[in-house]
């Protein structure tokens, strides 16, 4: 007797949908676990990463670590190595923003678009001080910037001399790339200076009998004479009155600049006799160059100053920072005696 065979369906060798979902989920989890450190760790502060030409990946790692921390730097450079980026093709300053992930920073560096840096300066007297600030901000050193500012060839390109090159360095905020060359930086300031001196301002300067550079030089004396912004136009007009009367300016700040000591509290007769083209007690007219780098506000205050007949000024005896003005010598002497008496009272030498 023959036994009947029952037919059975062969089991499929392919994983079921459920198994596929399990596998896919595992892959997703594995990937998530793998990239989580690159997504979860954030930059703790906003900073710049500096990459000079010819840097290595190790140098880039150190720069990132200096700006953030070692762990963050390691994650960024690992991603860059995996992407095959050549550090040699990158240079400049790259801004890392607070809260950005290692993945985002790596992408930013991979794109290779450097960031511009804000350069703001004020309260600067000398080219040495300016060069120091530029050297602290950009790739070039203080010596590099100072050398360019004193280079007759570079100065000639912007139609100035090493003596009055400071006229174009108007105190303000600017945007530069970190690796800007000293010559290009000077050219940028010159372009800005020319834009600032539009036809309207030039016309106002001409009406005062001055060139743009002469207004800047006068403004530098005014800024040293008074820290009170609301008094600068008045002080500027006083010096204009003296120039128009062919009187020497006799500005104390020019004596301090000539001597090279702005800490002087009391100008003496001996100091006034100091031999220098900047000493307006000895030399008629304006100095050959500015005695500090000026603000745009002071220039406009002089250009828009209201006429008056004052030709003398003296610091107020209340030490408020303001000045007593006089149109005649006797009134000025009375003002000066009050101030001198207060200096003696306070034992200021």
Structure description:
The protein is mostly helical and 349 residues long. It is built from 15 helices and six strands. The strands form three sheets. The protein has a two-stranded antiparallel sheet with strand order 1-2. The radius of gyration is 33 Å and the shape is elongated. The relative contact order is 0.08. Mean pLDDT is 88; it is low at 1-8 and 23-33.
Give the helices and strands, then pairings.
Elements: H1 17-40, E1 47-51, H2 57-67, H3 70-83, E2 92-96, H4 102-111, E3 116-120, H5 127-137, H6 142-149, H7 152-157, E4 173-177, H8 182-196, H9 199-207, H10 212-225, H11 232-244, H12 252-259, H13 269-272, H14 296-303, E5 312-315, E6 323-326, H15 329-345
Antiparallel strand pairs: 1-2, 3-4, 5-6
Helix pairs in contact: 2-3, 3-4, 5-6, 10-11, 10-14, 11-14
What attributes does this structure have?
349 residues; mainly alpha; 15 helices; elongated; disordered N terminus
The poorly predicted ranges are 1-8, 23-33
Major beta sheet summary: 2 strands, antiparallel
The helix content, as a percent range, equals 40-55%
Query: In sequence order, what are the helices and strands, one letter per element?
Result: HEHHEHEHHHEHHHHHHHEEH
* Overall body shape: elongated
| Rg value | 33 Å
What does the oligomeric state look like here? single chain
Strand content: 5-15%
Number of helices: 15
Q: How far is the N terminus from the C terminus?
A: 137 Å
Count of individual beta strands: 6
Q: What topology, given as strand order, has the largest sheet?
A: 1-2
The residue-averaged pLDDT reads 88
* Structural class designation: mainly alpha
């Amino acid at each position: 007797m023959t036994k009947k065979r029952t037919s059975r369906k062969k089991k499929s060798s392919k994983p079921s949908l459920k198994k596929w979902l399990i596998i896919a989920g595992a892959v997703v989890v594995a990937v998530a676990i793998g990239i989580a450190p690159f997504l979860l760790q954030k930059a703790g502060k906003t900073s710049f990463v500096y990459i000079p030409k010819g840097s290595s990946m190790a140098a880039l790692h150190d720069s990132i670590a200096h700006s953030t921390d070692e762990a963050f730097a390691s994650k960024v450079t690992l991603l860059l190595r995996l992407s095959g980026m050549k550090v040699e093709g990158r240079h400049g300053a790259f801004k890392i923003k607070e809260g950005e992930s290692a993945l985002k920073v790596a992408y930013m560096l991979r794109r290779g678009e450097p960031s511009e840096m804000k350069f703001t300066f004020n309260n600067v007297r000398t080219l040495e001080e300016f060069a120091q600030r530029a050297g602290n901000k950009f790739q070039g050193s203080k010596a590099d910037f100072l050398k360019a500012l004193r280079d007759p060839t570079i100065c000639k390109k912007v139609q100035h001399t090493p003596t009055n090159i400071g006229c174009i360095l108007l105190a303000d905020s600017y945007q530069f790339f970190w690796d800007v060359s000293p010559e290009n930086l000077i050219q940028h300031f010159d372009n800005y200076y020319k834009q600032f001196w539009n036809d309207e301002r030039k016309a106002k300067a001409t009406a005062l009998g001055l060139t743009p550079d002469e207004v800047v030089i006068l403004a530098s004396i005014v800024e040293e004479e008074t820290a009170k912004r609301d008094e600068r136009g008045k002080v500027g007009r006083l010096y204009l009155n003296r120039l128009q009367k062919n009187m020497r300016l006799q500005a104390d700040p020019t004596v301090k600049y000539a001597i090279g000591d702005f800490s002087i509290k009391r100008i003496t007769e001996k100091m006034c006799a100091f031999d220098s083209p900047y000493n307006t007690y000895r030399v008629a007219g304006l100095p050959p160059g500015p005695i500090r780098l000026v603000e745009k506000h002071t220039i406009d205050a002089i250009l828009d100053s209201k006429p008056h007949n004052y030709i003398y000024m003296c610091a107020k005896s209340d030490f408020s920072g303001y000045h007593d003005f006089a149109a005649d010598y006797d009134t000025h002497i009375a003002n000066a005696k009050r101030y001198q008496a207060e200096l003696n009272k306070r034992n200021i030498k």
